[in-house]
């Protein structure tokens, strides 16, 4: 058997030693030659410094595990419930793979730590006015211990109150929009209506009016025309029609 010289400081634990032996012998980690690796492992154990009992106990425990696996491989193959053969090395291989992943991760973290030492940070040069500026609303104080659930409950309560304000009858009515009456166009219409007539009733003038607002605007314009002297209005009785007479220019 090949003799190996190793130092305890080179390995952090038994799994680290096993990975070293697997790499050294260039064997497949999924098909570990247990007899070879166990022999080399035991040789290393004989050369260990027995002063560190905590580390020694870990290595001895792994030695017993290797010997157990070696014995089980000499016995007839065990099978599981599906009838497949059970490899006694499976659990050990899984631990070795996990240890290798953690080990490589530690190397990455170490490199990141070394690279971080090369980073330089620029001192802040922000103006004092900007550094002292505070937001107009402190959202943490505003919200306090309010959770998203509480905010949602408040929101739903507000929606419910808005729904209660809706009149179930009036809400079904159509939208009432204000009718816009163009006074200049209406005034031109009245003058055009009067050009072909020397006398007419207010009722005749309103036959084309479509709303109460248009009637009011027509009446106000008629008063303005009376004020300017263009029209003359008479009413014999309070129940009679208003008669409008167009004054002729002198």
Explained architecture:
It is a single chain. Helix content is 54%, strand content 6%. By secondary structure, the protein is mainly α. Among the domains are: 8-116, no CATH class; 183-246, Orthogonal Bundle (Arc Repressor Mutant, subunit A), CATH 1.10.10.580. Strand 1 and strand 2 (85-86) form a beta hairpin.
Q: What's the short version?
A:
By secondary structure, the protein is mostly helical.
> Structural class, from helix and strand content?
mainly alpha
Question: Low-confidence parts, pLDDT < 50 over ≥5 residues?
Answer: 1-9
Task: Provide mean pLDDT, rounded.
Answer: 77
Quaternary form? single chain
Strand adjacency order, main sheet: 3-5-4
Note the topology.
Elements: H1 14-25, H2 34-46, H3 53-74, E1 78-79, E2 85-86, H4 90-116, H5 128-132, H6 139-143, H7 148-165, H8 183-195, E3 199-201, H9 202-205, H10 212-227, E4 231-234, E5 243-246
Antiparallel strand pairs: 1-2, 3-5, 4-5
Helix pairs in contact: 1-4, 2-3, 8-10
Provide the descriptors you would attach to this structure in a database record.
single chain, 250 residues, mainly alpha, Arc Repressor Mutant, subunit A, three-stranded antiparallel β-sheet, two-stranded antiparallel sheet, 10 helices, disordered N terminus
